[in-house]
Amino acid sequence: MKVLKFGGSSLADAPRYLRVTDISTATHQTDGAAVVLSAPKGVTNALSLLCEQAAAGEDFQPLFEKLTSTVTGIASALNETLTGFEYANVIDFIDTHLGVLKQHLEGIKLLGVAPDNVSAGILSIGEYISVTLFSAILSAKDIKNRIIDPVSYILAEGDYLDSIADVSLSKARFTDVPNDGSELLIMPGFVAANEDGEKVTLGRNGSDYSAAILAACIDASCCEIWTDVDGVYNADPNQVEGAVLLDKLTYQEAMELSYFGAKVLHPKTIGPIAQHHIPCLIRNTLNPAAPGTLISNEKSEKWTSVKGISQLDDVTMFNVAGPGLKGMVGMASRVFEVMSNANISISLITQSSSEYSISFCIQSKDAPKALQLLEDAFALELQNQLLDPIEIRQDLAIVTLVGDGMRQTKGLAAKFFNSLAQARVNNVAIAQGSSERSISTVIESKRAKKAVKVIHQNFFSDRHTIDVFLVGCGNVGTELLSQISKQQPALLKRNIQLRVYGIANSRKLLLNSQGIDLSQDWQPALAAASEGLSIERLQQFANDNSLINPVIVDCTSHEAIAEQYVAMMENGFHVVTPNKKANTSSMAYYRKLRNTALSTNRQYLYETTVGAGLPVIDNLQKLFSAGDVLHRFEGILSGSLSYVFGKLDEGMTLSEATATAKENGFTEPDPRDDLSGMDVARKLLIMAREADLSLELSDIEIESVLPEGFAEDCSIDEFMQQLPALDDGFKERVESAKAEGKVLRYIGSIEGDKCKVTIQAVPASNPLSQVKDGENALAINSDYYNPIPYVIRGYGAGGTVTAAGVFADILRTMPWKQMAH
Ligand code: ADP
Ligand code: ASP
Ligand code: MG
To answer: Ranges for the ACT domain (predicted)?
Structure first.
């Protein structure tokens, strides 16, 4: 004989009841079946809410009517599809029970409270209606069946609302129940009776437990729990994308997972089936072909160390502390006695080694009662200040990693806590099960989903995620998006899921929680967006979507955005940027950026601020961190001015050369930034600061291409119109250099702590004379590179190479992949 249990999720409507009938009768024909049913979906919740409404003196009529129509709706739908369905009897049963319910609710409203014994009767109505419907279906199909009322069979003790069965005494009551398969047995789940024969319940979600008790009582060969997922996964499949279905779990693993929140199985279920060695299968009513997860003594060969992660919500932590705790024998046991006498179960305990405090977690619903009881029990100690006032912390969750093989595997705890650090989650308390089968952390509830996602990713998946928010869609930003779009499939093949969740320009912010489809034109959606950019909004979005690795990519050249990098990192974002403004702001801000990156464990990457896509910053950092010291630097740092000065050699005028550079996208949006020397000065400052020089932008000597005050306050177009006024003067300089066999070059240099940007006439023997057409060249003389300099040379201008450099930085934000499981 097999026990089959169907949860509320399998009993949502008439078609689901018929599906459950098919599954049950098929098993009944081969093995004989005893079926345990929950209430129809949502019914127990409604009953519980009705009690609350009545006790609060609220109008419960609307919900009562809704409940009535749900259950009668299922009955009439069944009546329409099944001939021989005893509709009148079923409706009579429903009416009677709902009539009693209404009387009780009115009584509760008058009393202002719902006593537990009355609540137990009310909460279990759904299960009784459920078995009545099911029995009527079977009878209509001429299948002999019998309803077993748990009140007469299952003996339990404890609270009216959370009792524990005595399996051996209950078993003795089953002598009159045939277990030869002659009748299909049906039992309402969730219900039992106490010694006095009063109806009690087994705790919310307790029908799984009923099935286990029944299986033990009738010596079933198997206990099948049918639900709405294919089995037990290594994390809640409705919360974690990519959760993996487990083939097998040991009883202990299943116990630990369910105890710490895997709702697919009620934790009390394991006791009876483990004790009687009954294998348990978790299966999907909506997909009966799936084999399900087997819970038994067998170990899985697939997942040998860590099996799963579970999350227990609605947790409150108590902290009992005070000088009186130290050395006072029995204090801890008194605390726990208070809880156990009140039937409050403790999910996790930690004690400080100084014995100065004990912390423990309980379900939040029990917290007010627990606090009251503790304060009463320790009134004297509290009064005499042997104990500090009892502290409670609410809105917590417990996240637990479970697996039998954890004992033999080293480093799992480190990986677990690294994952929490990566998710930027603080541990309020931690505990390792004494069996070493689990490690738990207590964290703020609002962070739990993200924590589970990151832990899952690090333990069970090879997939990395990068969650990009792009600010600024000019030349570089737009090019970056098109490169990302092209690369996304190839990255996915390497298990990197790079999605762009947000795009912002100076006015609008476009967000999409699925990731923006870059193969489509995203411009209209951005134009139609109704909100603007703010860090708060981005942070809220990243939280709501539990993004693991959010990166803000600033492709603007705005100071206002650069000023927000510290706040961005503090809010959990990595920052990647080609914008030079932050690194060339005050030295104080420069230091703050680096300190924030360290303290928040975020990456701040700006490789493209010097030399566009050329690997300048990374190389400098490697050199200097290996102990090298800069002596001298000289180079052409501006792709645009490399281009412009190269064109002057060829005989173009300054204004023609500038206009061509601008058309080719080689200049900054405003060419004055290049011609003023400011852009080169910023790059020089960035390099100097990498070399540990403490300098400000104002310390840099700049020889501008533009005379002081030239076309300063006009628009870009007007500036371009005025530029020809400088052509003649420049022509003269170019020609007099030429007469000496030289060319003009715009050169940045660092010598000691002096940084200069100058127009120099260089002879053909100087390698910089060859650098033109947008090329950059950097020569670094240092302790290690002397007298021959370290040279970096290559194309250093334009949106394509800059975007490619930004892209490379984005990929560098990927967390270090920790040791494999
Ligand atoms: P039923 O109504 O059948 O008793 P429940 O809603 O109580 O169903 O339990 C099934 C749900 O448990 C699933 O829909 C899933 O969201 C949740 N769940 C939580 N953790 C896990 C897990 N590790 N594996 C499978 N399901 C899980
Ligand atoms: N119907 C009960 C509940 O919702 C028991 C169960 O479904 O397991 O809590
Ligand atoms: Mg359930």
So the answer is: 320-389
